[in-house]
Structure formats: structure tokens, C-alpha cells
Amino acid sequence: MEAEKDHSNTGIVGRIWLRLKSAIGNSITGVSTVVRDVIKVGKDDPRRAVHSFKVGLALTLVSLIYYYQPLYTNFGATAMWAVMTVVVVFEFSVGATLSKGLNRGLATLLAGALGVGAHHLACLSGKIGEPILLSFFVFLQAVATTFMRFFPEIKARYDYGMLIFILTFSLVSVSGYRYDEILTMAHRRFSTIFIGGATCVIISIVVCPVWAGEDLHNLIALNMEKLGSFLEGFGDEFFRTSADTDWDTAEKRKCLRGYKSVLGSKSAEETLANFARWEPSHGEFRFRHPWKQYLELGALTRECAYRIEALDGYLNVNVQVPAVAREKIEGACREVSSEAAKALKEMAVSVRTMTRQAALADTDHLLVDCHGAVKDLKALLKASQWKETDLLAAVPLFTVTSLLIDVVECTEKIAESVQELSSLANFREVDPTSSPEKPAPLAGRKTKASKPDVECPHPHVVVPVHDMTLENGRASYPAE
Amino acid sequence: MEAEKDHSNTGIVGRIWLRLKSAIGNSITGVSTVVRDVIKVGKDDPRRAVHSFKVGLALTLVSLIYYYQPLYTNFGATAMWAVMTVVVVFEFSVGATLSKGLNRGLATLLAGALGVGAHHLACLSGKIGEPILLSFFVFLQAVATTFMRFFPEIKARYDYGMLIFILTFSLVSVSGYRYDEILTMAHRRFSTIFIGGATCVIISIVVCPVWAGEDLHNLIALNMEKLGSFLEGFGDEFFRTSADTDWDTAEKRKCLRGYKSVLGSKSAEETLANFARWEPSHGEFRFRHPWKQYLELGALTRECAYRIEALDGYLNVNVQVPAVAREKIEGACREVSSEAAKALKEMAVSVRTMTRQAALADTDHLLVDCHGAVKDLKALLKASQWKETDLLAAVPLFTVTSLLIDVVECTEKIAESVQELSSLANFREVDPTSSPEKPAPLAGRKTKASKPDVECPHPHVVVPVHDMTLENGRASYPAE
């Protein structure tokens, strides 16, 4: 009996202890998961942590208006507009911050003036007519401005300004019904918004600036590099013998598939280009840098990526290419693929470093090896040595060949676009004195410029997973 | 002399008249351009005009707080928060409005409470310590919350709430330094925001609601239909004789290329799905409708579109297919293409109308004709009748064949996904009593359901350019 009681006692204590232990364990696991996530998000792009501190700094600075008596006397409760402006306007990149700040400032100025006008007009119609007329004005401008927000050109650049226009006009004109000092109010609203906006813009430019233009520039170069990495590894992967282990294959494929992000990078590129247009001259980028050309280059890269996606389909399926056909064509296919890869990677370096090799002045020269390889491949197909081959089994091989030739065509278009960009953006000309005939190996410059974060075990495939540019493009610049 | 003066006089009057005329002409042209644009934007999606009126209505209703004395006595100047909320929260779709309204409301409640707490804590540290401690709190929460906004899961659903959290916490805690009635302020802020948010939500649900879920549903079906339209016309276009005029070709191609929008519809789909999750049960859509499955179906459709993009490349190039090879394979290729088109269009109708034919219960049945066609094509390739053919010239033909087979494979995957969707979303079963063996022709139901806005002159190609769904998805739901 006693033993049982003792047991049940230990049982209760034990159970409580167990629960406590599991609760502590759970919370430790929870906390460690959060910590791991935080470290991951911060490590993916350290600029995020810096941005958070910048926002904190701007907010603290602006809230000084409340604490410092002379300033507070001036602005009173409207000081909160400054705080509000900082929270809403401060964006990840300089371009986004400038775009929102200018939109907000100009819209406030314009709508404030119109609101004061509307108020005075409404005042003329007497005590009963005033609210009716004011309501009518507010309704009318809200309908008109909301509708204007659907125009694609306005939506792209001035959407936030439109929102603030509706807001300020409504506030100023309607508040006028209760306050007589409406001019003071409009004036204070504008000044506080100006203070908040200026604080954001200055801090975002002065403290570790994040330039949307630079992100776009790097994204475009990175995307070309990713296509190059796929093509570099494609030959090995398509013609691989079964000696490789499955793990190797899976790992390699994952590395090859870096190009997948290119397929969906359109909206990120457009957003970045939109913000880049607002940015002042910085580094090697002038105020009117040819951002449009980057978009064109991006579109061509994406077109190439679609072809590569079709090629990738032939890695998935376990294609049983007859050995005879394979042997005939393998060398030429590998050659085309790796030459296209080389061209793409060289162009990526050229864009990233904003240089062009004198020897690569015309696109033909850049792709000369590529064209040679395609010619060899076509000659192989023409030869009449295919008669004994099982055609059905060889079809995937022909398709891959044909798609590779398509990819080379896309690469040509990309090369032309890079050419145009290099002349529009005045890329520095670099003369490789060592070997004037053939372009010097770019490996040294490349490692300096591209900084790949992850190196694949595959000797041929280096996929820099410096992807936050893309993610930021899509995620960190909402049009608030 | 007089004649000359007279002439110069007429000259001045004439010139003024000419300038005036050209100015009037210019402004008339300008106005007519604007009017045309307005009509176009409104016609593209009449819901835009309705949305504008809804915003005007909500704003006018909320501004009544200012005019109606009893209400104004209650809220005072904080009434402007209600106006502000309406401007910022009212979005195009119910889901977006609900998402922003709930985010704003909950974040205000939470941050208000924390702000009051921070204020009381800071008060304990005396007159000098208070601003220092307050600044520290504001800085800390701004840094932490801004950083949290970079987490992808938070970004997707609660980004706006995070923004409002920073805003409200800063406002409430900092204002506390100047006002003693901080609780009243926090309370008023919450009430006015609640009034504004509720007005938006109610109007957006009651007056001609725009459901993001429905838009997503239609977009997914439309995308499948577009792929179907391409495949339907592909056979004619690829194997066309040179008898067609160039104009015809250009026009047809434009119609065929409706599928291009599918390539970039990922972000629109994700945005719509994100908003759809917030929407209550409406029409045939339950609260927990399987929106994730739509995203999966959309991804598969896009994968198919990538293959089709590669196919489209073979329409661009002036491929000189040898007549012998062509004749052999043309029939089978056309068959595969049109069977895949039929399957895609039938699935599109099935999704759009949320029905499934009893006869189509398993995917194999739906694609049975398709598989037959592929088999025929493969048999043709296997035959040894190709020995005399110039292989190089026939390579494009083989590639098209191979890509068509790929497309059929993608279609199979799409069919499986549609199948899964139909069971998850409980599609109504329709039993075609007329012919239980073969599915009844869906033409009648299709015209009712799909409402194509533009009919191409090509008898085979019907491309409904009801594209505003996509545009709205990307453009009208910014995460403000």
C-alpha cells in the first residue's frame, strides 16, 4: 500500500517533471528554430539587418520632434505625420524610398492646395450647403482618382501618389468643416511629411545604400550566368554513363536547375527597373542609365531559359539513346553546349563588370566557336551514316540537338542585346594585351566579380545562389 | 505699301488664328485621347468603374462622422483615421480588402495595447528617463518588426499588419509623452479604424463583389484554354502551304500567341490565391476551397506552356521540311496536336463550370484519343521508310514531333491535377445521357461558360482575351 502511494507520488511529481521538461524542451526547440530562421534570413542578405537598423534610426530621429519642446511647439499633434511618413515611405532600396517619398510629397502638396480650394468653394454655399458640396467633391475626386489608378502607366509609377492624393484631399477638405485654420493644417501636414520623407531619403542614401539599379544589374548578369551553368553541365548529364551514383545525379541536377528562377524573374526585373529610374547617379550608373535595355536583355534571357526548360525535360526522362547514334553525335553536342555556355558566361562577366573586351567588339567574334560547333553538328546530321539507326529511339537525341541549336540562336540575340547595352551604357573597353587574337581567360576577373555563394561539387557547374536579389525584387518593394 | 501692311496685318491675325486653331485642335485631340483611354480601361473590365464608385461611396459615408455632430463629439479629430482607413484598405477584391482590414485592425489592437504598456513602463523612470526609454522601445520594435517583414511566410500574408504594428506602437507610445489620456487615444484609434475597415468590407461584399477566388478560378481555366487554342491551330500553321497571304499568317499567329501570357502568370496566380484564402464562402466556393491545388494546376499549365513556347519557335523559323517526310508525318502530328487541344479545352470547361463528366472519371479515359494519336506517330517514326530522307532537313520535323509528345505528357499531368482538384472541390458530376460511351460534345456548355471577348478569324482558334483577371491580379492588389 505504502509502496503504491509512494509510486503514485513519484508518478505525479514525475509526470509534472516530465511535462515541465517537455515544455522546456519544446520552447527551446521553438526558440532555436526562430533563431535559426533569423540567422538564415539575415545571412541570405545581410543588407536586411542593416535596413532594419536604418528604419529604427529614422523613426527614433523623427520621434525627437515630440520630445524636443521648440519643435513640438511648432508642429503639435501633427508631428505624428512625420512618424507615419517614415514608417510608410522607408523602403529597402533607395529607388523605392525616393519613389514613395516624392510621390507622397508631391501628392500632398497638390491635394492640399486643391482641398483648401474646395473648402473655400464649399464655404460660399452656406451652413447647409457646405457639407453637401464637400461630400460631393470628396466623392467625385475619389471616384476619378481611383479610376485613374487602373491606367497601366499611372499604376506603374504614380500609384502611391494617387492614394495619397485621395487621402490628403479628403482630410483637408473635410477637416475644414471643423477647423477654421485649415491653411495652417495643410501647411503643417506638408512640412511634417517633408521632414519624414527627407529623413528617410537621406538615411537610405547615406547609410549603406541599397540601389535597385545595382540589384537589377546583378540580377541580369546572374541570370545569364545561370543559363551558362546549365549548358556547361548539360553535356555531362545527358551523356552520362550509369556509373554515377544516384546521389551524385540528384545533387548535380539540383545545381543545374539554378536556371529555374530565371523563368519567373520578369516581375522582379520590372519592379527593380521601375525603382532604378528614380535613383540618382551612383557608382558606375548615371541618372539616365539605360534600364530599359536591361529589361530587353532580361526578356531575351528568359526566352533562352524557356528553351533550356525544354532541354531539361530530356534529362528527366530516362532516355535510352542507342549507343551507335550517341557515339556519332556526342562530341558535337557537348561542344555546342559548352561553347554556348562559355559565350553566356563571358557576356555575364562583361555585363557585371561593365567592361567589353576589344577583341569581342562584334558579336560574331564572341560566338565564332559556337557557330563552328553548330556547323560540325549539322554536318554530322547530314551525313548518310544514319541509315541503320532506329529512328524512334534516336528522336530524343535529334530533339536535343535541335533545341541546342535554338539555344545558340537565342544566345546570338542575347549577344546583340549585350552589345547594344554596352554601347548605351558606355562599358569600359578592355584590351587583353596578352593575346590579342583570342580573348584572354576571364576566370580571374570572374571570381572577383561574381562571388558565387554555393559551389556545386560538380567540377563543371558553379551556380551562384546569390538569389536574394530576385527575392528582394519581388518581396521587399511592395507599392505601399 | 498699303497692300503689304494689309498683308502683314492679315498675317498676324492669321497666325494668331492658326495658333489658336492648332491649340484647340491639340487640346481636342488630347481630350479625345484621354476619353478613349478611359473608355478602353473601363471596357476592358467594367468592374473597375464600379470599384471606383464603391470607393467614393465608402469615403463619403465615413466622412459623415465629421458632419454629424453626435458622432463628431465622440471621436473628435481622430475621425480622420476612419477616412484614412477607407482610402488605404479598400482594395479591388473582397479578399484583398478583408486581408488588409483584418491586418490593420488586429495590428492596431495589439500594438495599441503594447504601446500603452511601454508608455506606463517609461513613466516609471522619471522625467529624464522617459524619452530615453521611449526612444529605446520604439527603436527596438522598429528594428525587430522590420526584420520580421523579410520572412517569406510573414511577408506573404501579414506584411501590412507588420507595417501598421510599427506605426501604431510608435504613435501611441510616443504620443503618451505629450498626452495623459493615452488610453482614450488608443481606444479612439481602434474604434475609428474599426469603423473605416468595417465600412470597406461591408461595401466590398455587398455592392457587386469582386472575388479574388473567382478570378483565380477563371484565370486557371482560361490559361488551359489558351494552350488548347494554340495546339488547335498549330497543325494548320506548321503544315500550311504558301498559298496563305502574309496578312492571314500574321493575324493567325497573333491569335495563336494568346498562350504567351501564361508564361508569366505565376505572380498573378500567387497574389490571387493569397487573397482568396481570406474570402468567406461565396457561390460555389467554400471558405476552405482548395486554392493550393489551383496553384499546382497553374504551375503544371505553365510547364506545358514552356514546351509550347519551344514549339512556337518552329513556327517562326521558315522551316523547309522535305515534302516526302512531311507527307508521311503530317496527319499523325495534326492528330496529336488537336487531340491534346481537345483534352485541354475539355478540362478548361470542366474547371470553369466545376463539373465533371461521369464518363471522364479517370484521366486515362479523357486522354484515350490522345494516346492513340501518339502511338500512331511513334509507329510512323519506327517504320524503316525514312532511309531515303535527308535527315538534317527533317530534324525540325522530328523535334516538333518530340515536343508534341512532351506536350501530351504535360497534358496528362494537368489531367491528373484537374482530377485531384475536382475531388477536393467536389465538382458536380454530370452524366451525359445521350452517349454514355463517348463524352458528349461540350460546345454548348463552353460558349455559355467562356465568353470569349475576341474571336479570331481563324475557324479553329478562339482566344478569349478576357485578360484583365491577370492584369488585376498583378496590378490591382498591391500590398499597401
What multimeric state do the chains show? homodimer
- How far do the termini of chain A sit from each other? 72 Å
The two chains with the largest interface, and their residue counts, are: A-B, 85 and 85 residues
CATH superfamily of the largest domain in chain A: Phosphate transport system protein phou homolog 2, domain 2
Shape of chain A: extended
H/E element string of chain A? HHHHHHHHHHHHHHEHHHEHH
Unreliable segments of 5+ consecutive residues of chain A: 1-5, 434-480
Reported by name, the CATH topology of the largest domain in chain A is Methane Monooxygenase Hydroxylase, Chain G, domain 1
Beta-strand residue fraction of chain A? under 5%
Descriptive overview:
Chains A, B: The chain crosses the membrane at residues 49-69, 75-98, 128-148, 160-179, 191-212. Chains A, B: It is a multi-pass membrane protein. Chains A, B: Residues 429-459 are annotated as: Disordered. Chains A, B: This is Aluminum-activated malate transporter. Chains A, B: It is found in: Membrane. The structure is a homodimer of 480-residue chains. The first copy, chain A, is an all-alpha fold. Chain A folds into 2 domains: 47-206; 212-476, Phosphate transport system protein phou homolog 2, domain 2 (Methane Monooxygenase Hydroxylase, Chain G, domain 1, Up-down Bundle), CATH 1.20.58.220. Chain A is 76% helix and 1% strand. The first copy, chain A, has 19 helices and 2 strands. Chain A has a two-stranded parallel sheet. In chain A, helix 2 packs antiparallel against helix 4, helix 9 (212-238) packs antiparallel against helix 10 (246-256) and helix 14 runs antiparallel to helix 16 (368-382). Chain A is extended. The termini of chain A are far apart. Mean pLDDT of chain A is 80; it is low at 1-5 and 434-480.
